[in-house]
Amino acid sequence: MVIAKELTKEFSGGKLAVSNVSFTARPGEIFGLLGVNGAGKTTTLRMLSTVLTPTAGSATVQGFDVVKEPTKVRESIGFLSTSTALYGRLSGKEVLQYFGRLYGLSNEKIKERIEVVESLLKLGEFWNRNCDSYSTGQKQRVSIARTILHDPPVLFFDEPTAGLDIVSAQTVMEFIESCRAAGKTVIFSTHIMSEVERLCDHIAVIHDGKLVADGRTDDIRAGRRLEEAFLDLVGYQKELTHA
Amino acid sequence: MREVFLKELREMFRDKRVRSTAFLGPIILIFGLLFLLSSVIGNLAKPQSVKVHLLENTPAAWVKRFEAEKYQVQFVKSEAEGRKLITDGKARTLVVFDGPTEAKVQKVRVLFDESEQLGQIGKERILGVFRVLNEKKLAGYLKGQNVTPEMVSEIAPEAVNIGVTKDKGAGEFLVGFLPYLIVIWAFYGGMSSASDLVAGEKERSTLETLLISPVSRTHIVLGKIFALGVICFLSSLSSLVGLGIFVGVRPPGSEMMLNKGLGINGSTVVLAIALLIPLVLMMASLLILISSYAKNAREAQTYLSLGSFVVIMPAMFSQFIGLTEFGKAAWVDYVPVLNVANHLRLALLSKPDFAGAGVAIVVNLILALLAGWIAVRMFHKETIITRA
Predict the structure, then answer these.
(1) What is the pTM of this model?
(2) Which residues lie below 8 Å from residue B91, measured CB to CB, with a gap of 6+?
(3) ipTM for the complex?
(4) Please, are residues A147 and A80 in contact by the beta-carbon 8 Å criterion?
């Protein structure tokens, strides 16, 4: 479970990236974090994953405080984003072994988990080659494997399908659905409404760093298309009209 | 930390840029440079390589004498032609025999261009030939008068070498050159990797996955510093491999550079390693610190190029320290880079100063710890580590 309470982040120079954001993401559900580019989604996820320290407020991941117990938090999470690259001069298998050791898994456990993710994501055909030679889809499959190698109870996905082709994106979506089925707590950050409608049980909308909506997907939608509901929430007004 | 260290080493050893710039680069560069210098020095040392221009009407006896001294004799029709060749840079010297003076001494003018080094060298050599002839004539005259040279001398000077004997210590050229190369490659060897280690990881967003892992940031940065330190150390030693190949090949002209051997023995090696370890740790910490500050690899390269001046300046000074009084000055031990180069120089001269070297080691170790501490602090600053 992930609980954020009045989470705030002010960067040097006074820029308020996230202001008093509170929400709860529960196990066995996919929690959608929606917002336009620069709304504060990534900053929120970075605070929850202990990369950034909140200026105010608090958050817990699996009961561990993100400021006081960052190591416990990191052990409990997996993080996937399309912007995250792999180590080009290591093979996919070596990347997984490296992260397995960083997460403190024993050699036997690493071997066991690698076998699991290998068969789940079908990595065997290419994972002995250096990551530099992978296609985008292959890279994403290895990244997914890295994310779940230590079998974390909480998973953060930061725009995980951005820039992916339709087949690779489908793999990611199916994987996220499987996480819900496995009882994981999933926070899914995106601005692609079709993905939200397909995946998310619960939605929080962030705009200009503030939480403008938090509720069940159907409640937020209130009978409309999600896209319309979202535009209403972020105060979008039609600006361009044909002459 | 061990995992980060091993992974970084593995990646760096697989990187063609690292293999070429940190290991192959110094070997080729040092060997090539020494090869070039040895051929230049060898050519300068050969008498037959020195050209001398004479007028066509030069007495045949003098022409034969120059040829006997293995000069390349070339003739010009007139003094004016010879002068033109010298000013055009096509001739080094023109020797003009003007006929006997009133005292019946053969008057000779050696024309040369002072702005041309080869002209100056040629002039000195030709004057040397005439000086020897004069000395021989004087000795013969004195002998005819039953006078020994000592009888017409005021003093009998003698230079006595109480320093390193000929079979110990490296040649002067290597003493100036070798420490410079060793310290300079301790920095340059790590430069290409450093920009990739942190700034490059920021750019590719791989650093974020590392920061999200349970490994502490302190261990991440220390793992990177130690891995880079190994590369810096090996790169520094690669310059010695280049030298070793040069010594093994011994191209023509190298005997003048290697006339006193290499001056390397067991204690020199131990002292060199003891001096180098804190130096490479300091360099690696500095490189990681700069790379941590940069937004991306390109920006890191810019900062690293600027930072290299901090290393180049004392390193270059170390080449000339033997020409100054500073070689034994206590303050030198407190100047990073210069202190290592100076103590390597002293060790190569077979005059190791263990106390001074100890100070240098401690100073560099303190600076390495300081730079490492700042790098660790920087890694904990989210405004720096997340800027990309």
Answers:
(1) 0.79
(2) B51, B53, B74, B76, B82, B85
(3) 0.85
(4) yes
